[in-house]
Write a structure and sequence with these properties.
The complex is a heterodimer of chains A (143) and B (135). By secondary structure, chain A is mostly beta strands. Chain A has 1 helix and 9 strands; from the N terminus they run H-E-E-E-E-E-E-E-E-E. Chain A has a 4-stranded antiparallel β-sheet, with no helix packed on it. In chain A, strands 4-5-7 form a 3-stranded antiparallel β-sheet, with no helix packed on it. Classes of the chains: A mainly beta (143), B mainly beta (135).
Chain lengths: 143, 135
């Protein structure tokens, strides 16, 4: 019997999925998820990937997005408001400084068709998979 | 530059005292900067995904609550391969001193950053006391 056959009975019978979720839960216990600013999410389908990042308050003009091979790099900076004399910070929790974030993509992308959108402090980069990398259907020649 | 490697983590808000929410979703605590200026206090909160229509600022007695609703855009037919942040609403509550002029509070949102300007009430402003030379 194949493991994949278990899928037919529903997810609770799939041992691998259980292991995976257990593993994830354990990893969360031992080490809190900490990442470099900005945090990103990566979504992918077979022909397309989307990278989103929460970078509130950055000037979209100053954000630099580049792609080399399968690596997407974001660069930018966010400054603190300068204080005048007699002014003081009571709390300073917001992130500031230079940011450089690299994200490895699951496949090579067609960089000429990449689009980026910055809305409400959320960056969303749409990355179509390179034509040459797309999964190809293999035709069987009749003998 | 020391901040380049600073690690970040979105902090989930503790269950609010008012009870449970009707909508089941995560709630995060936004990072804030609070500045004291001569005539006003400035609160700046990072709330990515929030715009002027989805943010609420309420002042009840001296409790200031900021709440932002985030409607996540999830790409269709895509699988989440890497998830470094969760998506949810933002909420945070502050207790103000009486020194704020409630009627003149201003709030603006730009690029997912909420800025609140809380002008100080006349009585709380620093006053310079002139000193006269004794004759």
């Amino acid at each position: 019997m194949l493991w994949s056959e278990l899928e037919r009975f529903g997810r609770f019978l799939d041992p691998w999925r259980e292991f995976e979720s257990m593993n994830r839960a354990l990893a969360r216990l031992s080490a809190p998820v900490t990442v470099e600013f900005p945090a990103v999410n990566l979504w992918a389908s077979e022909e397309h990937a989307v990278v989103t990042a929460e970078i509130p308050g950055i000037d979209p003009e100053s954000l630099d997005i580049s792609i080399v091979d399968k690596t997407l790099t974001l660069r930018g900076a966010r400054r603190l408001e300068e204080l005048k004399e007699g002014e003081a910070y009571h709390r300073r929790e917001r992130w500031h400084g230079q940011l450089t974030k690299m994200v490895e993509l699951p496949f090579a992308v067609d960089s000429s068709r990449v689009q980026a959108r910055f809305l409400k402090g959320v960056l969303s980069v749409s990355l179509p998979r390179a034509e040459a990398e797309k999964p190809r259907k293999i035709v069987i020649n009749p003998s | 530059m020391e901040d380049v490697k600073r690690e970040i983590e979105k902090k989930e808000a503790s269950t609010p005292g008012q009870g449970e929410r009707t909508r089941q979703r995560r709630v995060y605590t936004p990072d804030v900067d609070i500045m004291e200026k001569k005539d006003e206090m400035v609160v700046i909160a990072d709330m990515p995904g929030v715009d002027e229509k989805s943010v609420d600022v309420t002042l009840d007695k001296n409790v200031l609550t900021i709440h932002g609703r985030v409607d996540a855009e999830i790409p269709e037919n895509h699988k989440l391969l890497l998830s470094e942040y969760g998506i949810g609403d933002f909420q945070r509550t502050f207790t103000l001193s009486d020194e704020v002029d409630r009627d003149r509070i201003r709030a603006t949102v730009k690029n997912g950053v909420l800025k609140l300007v809380l002008p100080k009430a006349e009585a709380a402003k620093m006053r310079k006391i002139p000193i006269q030379a004794e004759a």
